[in-house]
Amino acid sequence: MVRPFAVVLLLAATVANAQPHLVFEHKIGTDWAPDSNRWMSFVAVSSDGQTVTGDASVLLKNEDRLSFWTFPDGKFLRSIEGVPVAISPDFRYLVIEKQILDLQSGKPILTVAHKQDTLYAAAFSVNGELVAVKASPHLAKGAQLTILRTAGGSVLSSFGTRFVCAMAFAPDGHTIATGHWNNITLWDVKTGTKLALLMSPQRKVDPDRYYRDGRYLGAVAVSPDGKLIAAGSDDGELQVWNVASRKLLHTISLSWAGVTAVAFSPDSNLIATGSYHDGTLRLVDTATGKLLSEVQASMFGVGTVAFSPDGKYLVTPSNDGMLNNGKYSRGGAIRVFRLEK
């Protein structure tokens, strides 16, 4: 006979273990690489969930390509030359180091004029109609950020004088969040008006760790419901902010390594982070700030992370040494993790 209190304990344990966690799906994505000697740092999943893209670079050589596969069956579609910086959700527009391309027509909508100029960072609005780029000073003198219309490439606005580490549009397309040294700034996209400054709190000094006076917030994401901002720092912190109240909800110390990528799940309930130095994927609950799951995705780094639109998968690039069904694999490949409860 099972005693009532034993049933209660069993139910409590079942609920406690029902939290989302990541499971490596070794049958999907592990062969999505041009060859075994490539280095990968970029992935994205299209807004319709039918296509995945990832880059491939040969180390120490000027050979960079972005390839496209169907998802999740992995049929190769095509590849194009260039180092990817950002791609629009519908996969219509692509930012590479020197150009913004219309992938439908194959024509550039912007090409940097000076040989030494580079499009260092970029982000697209959810509808793909706008793209924000951080470029060399020649693109917009005196401004760190330029907002362009993808239809035709005309400039909507240019603003900001502080160094920009990362950026992300709010879902309404009217606001953009930028990461800097020790703070996040919210801007009006059309006018360049500063709407808010979210300052990182002064940290508690731990004598066993080395601390600087601040941190670079080099990974930024806005939740699909527009209520939260996630920011990853170069010293391994994840910050979660409430957009309406401008209040810091959580500061989570995740790793000795920097948080180089952040992404919200489609329902805004989870944040995935990637760390380039320790190659670890982590899953955090947005409501509690609790670390739910962490898995080793690569021995050498996780450059970006992307959820599938249905929230069932998390996709990331991997470099050399990921355990693949009990065996080590070499070279770059796309890693697909399944979210389970």
Quick one: overall form? globular
What do the pLDDT scores average to? Answer: 84
How many helical elements? 1
Return Rg in Å: 20 Å
* Main pleated-sheet profile: 5 strands, antiparallel
User: What's the helical proportion of residues?
Assistant: under 10%
Please report the distance between the alpha carbons of the first and last residues: 29 Å
Verbal overview:
- With 341 residues, the chain is mainly β.
- 4% of the residues lie in helices and 47% in strands.
- It has 1 helix and 31 strands.
- The strands form 8 sheets. Strands 2, 3, 4, 5 and 6 form a 5-stranded antiparallel sheet that branches.
- A hairpin with a 4-residue loop joins β9 and β10.
- It is globular.
